[in-house]
Amino acid sequence: MRRKFWKFLWRSALVLGLLGIFGILLPRLILVLYAKPRIFSIKEVMPRRVAIVFGAGLWRDGTPTPVLQDRVGTAARLYFEGKVDKLLMSGDNRYVDYNEPEAMRQYALSLGVPDEAMVLDYAGRRTYDTCYRARDIFGIDSAILVTQEFHLPRAIFLCNMLGVEGVGVPADLQYYRKISRALWTLREVFATLDAINDIYYKKPLPVLGNPEPIFATEE
């Protein structure tokens, strides 16, 4: 009798555990399916006026990490191929010695992108903030979103839910270590839950300010 009782408990725990895992993974799967028809190569993507480039961290010396270099490099290719007119470089600048947008700008300049083709968003602290500010501060309602494939589903979901009709171009220009890709994918599972919570429940306000539309209304 006692053995049957413990077997029942173990089976129940296993079922509940599997249901919990499924409940955590399901939102990520839904976002991947949602984003899939909205992801294109540089050659395939239809031109739009602006590309949004998401921040991805800096080294201690203030230079872009390889992930961020790939994002800026992909955005530069979009610009040179006439797919976009402007690049919105969005990143974190909460601290004096940490300036993602400026590092992105400097790297883009080194690739030959003219300064007048870039706009910097210094308060893109999170993907949610970047999409929100793209609409409310920079007057963007349509954009090409530039980030790695693991991040694109969340970026596409957030921007589209916040009123920026976005399609994505993957910025995977180099090989990333398997352990890094695994960690990024795992992080996205939980970041997806946060994104859904932000859109449907919390609806937080990012840092805002006066509107700075990238394109004049008469254009």
Task: Describe the model.
The protein has 219 residues and is of the alpha/beta class. The protein contains six helices and five strands; from the N terminus they run H-E-H-E-H-E-H-E-H-E-H. The protein has a five-stranded parallel sheet, with helices on both faces. Strand 4, helix 5 and strand 5 form a beta-alpha-beta unit. Helix 1 crosses helix 6. The protein starts with a helix and ends in a 17-residue tail after the last helix.
Structure summary:
The protein has 219 residues and is α/β, with parallel strands linked by helices. It contains 6 helices and 5 strands; from the N terminus they run αβαβαβαβαβα. Strands 3-2-1-4-5 form a 5-stranded parallel β-sheet, with helices on both faces.
Strand content: 5-15%
Low-confidence stretches: none
Series of secondary-structure elements, N-terminal to C-terminal: HEHEHEHEHEH
Task: Estimate the mean pLDDT confidence.
Answer: 87
Topology readout:
Blueprint: H1 2-35, E1 50-54, H2 66-80, E2 86-90, H3 100-110, E3 118-121, H4 127-136, E4 142-147, H5 152-161, E5 165-170, H6 178-202
Helix pairs in contact: 1-5, 1-6, 2-3, 4-5
Which structural traits does this protein have?
219 residues, alpha/beta, five-stranded parallel sheet, 6 helices, 48% helix, 12% strand
